[in-house]
Amino acid sequence: MKEIVKEIGNYVIKKIENFVSYADVRVHMFRFLVIKTENRKLKEIQAKEKYSVALRVMQNGKIGFASITGFNKKSLDKLISNAFSSLKACSTNFELAERKPEKAEVCSNFKLHPCKFPLEEKILICEELNKISITSAKIKVSETWLGEMEEIRYFTSTDGADIITKFISTGIKQTSVAKENGRIQKLSETKSNVGGYEFVYSENWSEFVRKISFLTEKMLHSSFPPKEKIPVILDPKSIGLLLHESLGHACEADLVFSGSSLLKNMLGEKIASESVNIYDSGVEENGVFVPYDDEGVKKGKTEIVKNGVLKSFLHNRETAAKFSTTSTGNARAENAFMLPLVRQTNFFMSPGDYKLEELIEDTKKAIYVSGIGAKGGETNVSTGYFTFTSGVCYLIENGEIKKQLAQIPISGFVTEALSSIDAIANDFSLHFNIFLGCKKEGQRVKVGFGGPHVRVNKVMIGVL
Questions:
Q1: pTM, whole model, 2 decimals?
Q2: Domain assignment of residue 448, given as a range
Q3: For a surface tag, which of 187, 200, 223, 388 has the fewest beta carbons within 10 Å of its beta carbon?
Q4: Does 272 share its domain with 173?
Q5: C-alpha distances in Å from residue 267, one per residue of 88, 279, 309, 328, 417
Q6: Which tens digits make up the pLDDT trace of 201-216?
């Protein structure tokens, strides 16, 4: 595969390098398999393979773009022709910030490649877990999914960049629906990992699927907390979801430049408690794998918030030029059919000093918000207002976790919520979902999010 993608990139670059001031080629190869079982039966197998090539050309401050699916020379020649036609039609000026041309070949860590295991074995794993997940007659619907994904991305350019990144990820999803006395509850949870089938064979998936069904059954008897402003303790997945939705998008520099983000004039301003530090990083344990972005920029660890102060936005080369700065390596495209947009990679809060037990014992009354079953919400990046549906919740009274509560909507304003954080635990974890991606302008990319346990005082239980 490496030889094929390099041959494609070199063929295109050599044909155009004397006719442009700059050009880059992206080759994307993608393979995805999802096995779905429901109520002890195989329901569906989805298998996809996609191949795409993109060409971006620049001359005299204008830009052209084209993409194709074919890898033969006739298709590549058509790609070149279409890109130059697009260049001629361009009526706006375009500038890219400078960056160091990198040469690299990077692969995510894995031990057991998914392709070494027969489909029948994968189906059997999924079917057995699905049977185990049906813990009682109250579970009316049980869906168990097994997924695997493999991507190769190649980037080369006229200024000497030559980068291949490859990663493999796997994951399992459990959805349980329980019913009793006319009341219905549904809970869905996914565990994903950048790695091969060592993840599938090393985790205790029987316990995982049973737990989701058990929690779903308990939700049948869970009560709702009063609609009020009350402190919440967010677990790592919940704080990550809040940060991703409410702050991460507002930090994307294309939205800042357009005036859409509430953060447009707040660089250097205090937007959170002094104990809050937030980062965006391309390679983190249990997160997504983005060592280089889709403009050939090395993705390091970008400091977004330091001691409560907003320090940086997320940039691609285009927005970096507009802000007279350098790219943070956040140009990402779903595939080569699309131009890279400013996107998050792994967006998270760093740990604090509290032990989790101390944090809970120090809390008189609050709601513990778990990320199990949490659902992505909505954010108005202009105002900072956010809302999302929690996972399983619990009432905390006098420093003890009491009864389980139903899933609840949580809402608030991002700077108000972050400024009300008064305790951050010393634990940490990241999460991403192999089956879903974050959507922006029609593109979906995988993003990681997380942090430690955090106590937040100013959010609303229920929608404002």
A1: 0.96
A2: 232-461
A3: 223
A4: no
A5: 37, 15, 8, 15, 18
A6: 999 999 999 999 999 9
